[in-house]
Amino acid sequence: MAFKAAHSLFVILCAASMLTLCSANRGWSYGLNNTYQRPWGHKNESHNSNNTNDHDGPNKIIVGGSDHWRFGFNYSVWAFQNAPFYVNDVLVFKYDAPNDTVFPHSVYQLPNLWSYLRCDLSRAKMIANFVLKRWLPYYFACGEHGGLHCREGRMKFMVLPLLRRWHY
What top-level branch of life does the organism fall under (predicted)? Predict the structure, then answer.
């Protein structure tokens, strides 16, 4: 029994490490003369279409881009496609006010990978906009309907912000 638990934890940690490595290396160039085209466009274009700043300082990033924070949007894929994120970047969560056709939403920071994987909000902290203050993994989810939006609505994602290289 203990072996199964240890094996499961090892697999989860390996998967999280692979995701982090893949996200961190997305901006590297390959081949001769840096001719590799990045998946998000030409190497001189901004890879993060949600970045509202045009300088080398912290970015203000709208989570989900023009889709904002809504049920049914895959935020894990969005985070992967918009990586890398950097220390001191600001995540902005925008969502419509609840009405007859729109469910209420919220944003929680989850304390660890296990809570993230299980959509366990019991020790989560409700947040609004969020500054990625340190180089550590951050886990976010919608906390509505006892975690249903997290589990079934794919309203969760994780990021590991990188340290920014300053150009002098």
Answer: Eukaryota
Q: For residue range 117-150, what is the model confidence (pLDDT) as tens digits?
A: 999 999 999 998 999 999 999 999 998 878 889 9
Number of CB atoms found within 10 A of residue 158's CB:
21
65 closest CA partner among 56, 52, 46: 52
Structure confidence at residue 30 (pLDDT) = 37
Q: Is 66 helix (H, G, I), strand (E, B) or coil?
A: helix
Distance (Å) of CA 151 to CA 137, 144, 146: 20, 10, 10
Determine the Cα–Cα distance for residues 11 and 17; give it in Å rounded to an integer: 10
What string of DSSP letters covers 116-148?
HHHT--TT-EE-SSEE--SSS-EEEE--GGGGH
pLDDT digits (tens, 9 = 90+) for 16-70: 555 554 444 444 433 333 333 334 333 323 344 445 444 567 899 999 998 989 8
Residue 168 in tokens: 């002098």
Give the per-residue pLDDT at 32.
Answer: 37
CA 163: distance to chain centroid?
Answer: 16
Residue 110 dihedral angles phi and psi, to the nearest 5°: -90, 150
Outline where DSSP puts E strands in the chain.
60-62, 90-92, 108-110, 125-126, 130-131, 138-141, 156-159
